[in-house]
Design brief:
The complex is a heterodimer of chains A (about 100) and B (about 240). Chain A is mostly helical and about 100 residues long. Chain A has helices at about 1-25, 30-50, 60-75, 80-100. Chain A has one domain (about 1-100). The chains are: A mainly alpha (about 100), B mainly alpha (about 240).
Chain lengths: ~100, ~240
């Protein structure tokens, strides 16, 4: 039974964090600072989640770096999300295949 | 006419969610394997995924449950790891179209994950509830199905495929950040600052004792705060459309 209490507690905590700001702030915020801050949040947050975590996401930092470089090159050239993600995966696969043979 | 619009928005969201679904399936597959290895049944693993829909929070929760941690510990851990969702929800609240009612916000909030948030704010215009429904439903299903598959068939994918899929979600993040960073220098500077801070929190002695979840919150607050202070965006830059 305790396991269900654990799961419920995790689920409720996570949900409340997500729902409170979304329901509380329905009006458009007018403060230029807050608006600018929220404008930058996604970029800051996504970058912080990617670096350095991406370098430990595969079997070796070398293959991860290959995936990273490919993703940066394609992303810089405005390729679509599936293309960037897909080629990053392929780069990792190729890199790991090469690594196994040297 | 209105129904047609709703359908179009839903389909657009569903299409945008495709890379998320693939990424989630592989990550939650790993979660399913870990849950099975920790001694949980496929049913419990699946229940955790469908009620939580969060990667880091679930992985941490799994460890704590195995250790029979106290409720307070579980609560505090989930709070710190998932606090970034609070920031994301705040940011998303400004991107939802005015037609999105409170009831719909209650539903949308349930699956406001890193990736869903990232895709919804990358749209050039405000988003409707139909779009969010299309964007969220399939990743939730993928997340749940991946967990179940991982727990049931403990090692279906060869290790090199699992390893390669590990970069899929990060590749997506990079594809979201770089084009606007290239066009607007302040975004590039804010992202660069976030990267430097994140590296510091991971590797610098002392700073690296801060948990990963908390580190992301600090990096976001500092980098976005610095950006807002030095390069405030001109008013009316983002119009409703």
């Amino acid at each position: 039974m305790k396991i269900y209490c654990y799961i419920a507690l995790m689920a409720i905590t996570t949900y409340l964090i997500r729902v409170i700001p979304l329901v509380l702030f329905q009006k458009e915020i007018h403060s230029p600072f807050v608006k600018s801050f929220l404008y930058y949040v996604p970029y800051a947050c996504l970058t912080a989640m990617t670096i350095p975590a991406i370098f430990t996401a595969t079997q070796s930092p070398v293959s991860a770096a290959c995936g990273f470089v490919v993703a940066v090159l394609l992303g810089w050239n405005k390729k679509s999300l599936p293309v960037v993600a897909g080629f990053a995966c392929i780069a990792v696969m190729i890199a790991e295949a090469v690594l196994r043979h040297i | 006419m209105k129904n047609q619009n709703t359908k179009n928005h839903f389909m657009e969201g569903a299409k945008d969610s495709l890379p998320i679904v693939i990424g989630y399936f592989s990550v939650s597959f790993t979660f399913g394997i870990m849950a099975a290895k920790a001694g949980f049944s496929p049913w419990i693993a699946t229940l955790i995924s469908i009620t939580n829909v969060t990667s880091a929070g679930q992985f941490a929760g799994l460890t704590l449950m195995v250790a029979q941690a106290s409720y307070l510990e579980i609560f505090l851990t989930e709070l710190v790891i998932n606090l970034r969702y609070g920031l994301m929800s705040l940011s998303l609240s400004q991107r939802l179209s005015d037609s999105v009612t409170t009831g719909k916000r209650l539903l949308i909030a349930f699956a406001n994950t890193d990736e869903i948030f990232a895709v919804s704010v990358s749209k050039p215009h405000k988003v409707t509830s139909a779009y969010m429904a299309g964007l969220e439903i399939f990743p939730i299903l993928g997340w749940t199905a991946g967990t179940l598959s991982g727990a049931v068939a403990t090692s279906l994918l060869p290790p090199f495929v699992q390893s390669a899929l590990g970069v899929a979600l990060y590749g997506m993040f990079i594809a979201i950040v770089l084009p606007p960073a290239r066009a607007h220098r302040p975004i590039a500077l804010v992202s660069l600052l976030a990267a430097v801070l994140s590296l510091s929190f991971t590797y610098l002695p002392g700073l690296n004792r801060i948990s990963a979840g908390f580190s992301i919150i600090l990096c976001t607050l500092i980098a976005a705060g610095v950006g807002a202070f030095f390069w405030p965006i001109p008013d009316n830059k983002e119009d409703d459309s």
